[in-house]
Amino acid sequence: MMSAVFAAHREQHAPDEAIAELWGRLGELGLVRLTGSEESGGSGAGWPEAVELLRAAAWHGVKIPLAEHDLLACWLLETAGLEIDDARRTAAVLDADGVARGVPWAADSERVVLLWRDGSGGRVADVDTTSLAVTAGHNNAGEPRDDIRASLAALSGNPVPATVVEQFMQRAAMVRAVQVCAALDRILELSVAHARERIQFGRPLAKFQAVQNLVADIAAESALARAATDGALAEALRSGWSSSHLYFLVAVARSCAGHAASVVVRNAHQVHGAIGTTLEHRLHEFTMPALSWRSEYGSVAHWDQMLTEYATAAGTEGLWALATATDN
């Protein structure tokens, strides 16, 4: 059902067209707040269902803030005990100056859920977007990524534990890992189809060993990224996002997905040749988001550095235990 909704939308519209219409359709199906509690007006589903929804949107190249609204903004409101209405939302973490940069879909949202550190904990406030200073921007995939500024002195907000701030960043990082993996899987599908259908020198590209090697590397890197992401997500759900090893596993997932994106995008464009660089071909609908998403909520270098610090702290005697341990 999820895939069919996005497929039907893409048959009639470009990736970023008629989003309000699609949002209404998803709302009718109970997919806009898929993981929200039924008591607060949500559908009562969980992350496994939400992940399938995100994968379906990314697979069809639809640009829509489902994760930002449901898994981040509305989750924060529920966690902080704040009321939730039907307004479209996104979420942002403010720094000490009340600034957040590269906020997804801020200018396109009716309200922004703000999270900031306050002493030993944090605070959450649900504010009207018009009350914020918003500077519009976009990532390289053309998705809205806006800078916002709020007056911390004018905000009260509800208090939340420091663990909420940490979990927000983990959830946001996982969202992007899931989306990157979905884009890589679609790139693999496009590359396999093109190699089979494109005839060069009297035979399909798939018959050339060099092309086979390129596609094999795409498949291997995509599978590695997906396995790392699925492993981190499984531990998050098993432990209720409280595992002491979760941050390490998220770092593994984001590092694997980030490096995989480089290989997959490079090889896919080599397989497709010149046609893959045109706006008419759909390849860019997945390669550009994959490269953009891998740098959001922590760059590849950031996650690599985290892994380096974990490995250094574990030392030669503890490295195997670090890589294999989970909380019981």
From TrEMBL:
<comment type="similarity">
    <text>Belongs to the acyl-CoA dehydrogenase family.</text>
</comment>
<dbReference type="Pfam" id="PF02771">
    <property type="entry name" value="Acyl-CoA_dh_N"/>
</dbReference>
<keyword id="KW-0274">FAD</keyword>
<dbReference type="InterPro" id="IPR009100">
    <property type="entry name" value="AcylCoA_DH/oxidase_NM_dom_sf"/>
</dbReference>
<dbReference type="InterPro" id="IPR037069">
    <property type="entry name" value="AcylCoA_DH/ox_N_sf"/>
</dbReference>
<dbReference type="InterPro" id="IPR009075">
    <property type="entry name" value="AcylCo_DH/oxidase_C"/>
</dbReference>
<protein>
    <submittedName>
        <fullName>Acyl-CoA dehydrogenase</fullName>
    </submittedName>
</protein>
<dbReference type="GO" id="GO:0050660">
    <property type="term" value="F:flavin adenine dinucleotide binding"/>
</dbReference>
<feature type="domain" description="Acyl-CoA dehydrogenase/oxidase N-terminal">
    <location>
        <begin position="12"/>
        <end position="81"/>
    </location>
</feature>
<dbReference type="GO" id="GO:0003995">
    <property type="term" value="F:acyl-CoA dehydrogenase activity"/>
</dbReference>
<feature type="domain" description="Acyl-CoA dehydrogenase/oxidase C-terminal">
    <location>
        <begin position="164"/>
        <end position="291"/>
    </location>
</feature>
<keyword id="KW-0285">Flavoprotein</keyword>
<dbReference type="InterPro" id="IPR036250">
    <property type="entry name" value="AcylCo_DH-like_C"/>
</dbReference>
<dbReference type="InterPro" id="IPR013786">
    <property type="entry name" value="AcylCoA_DH/ox_N"/>
</dbReference>
<keyword id="KW-0560">Oxidoreductase</keyword>
<dbReference type="Pfam" id="PF00441">
    <property type="entry name" value="Acyl-CoA_dh_1"/>
</dbReference>
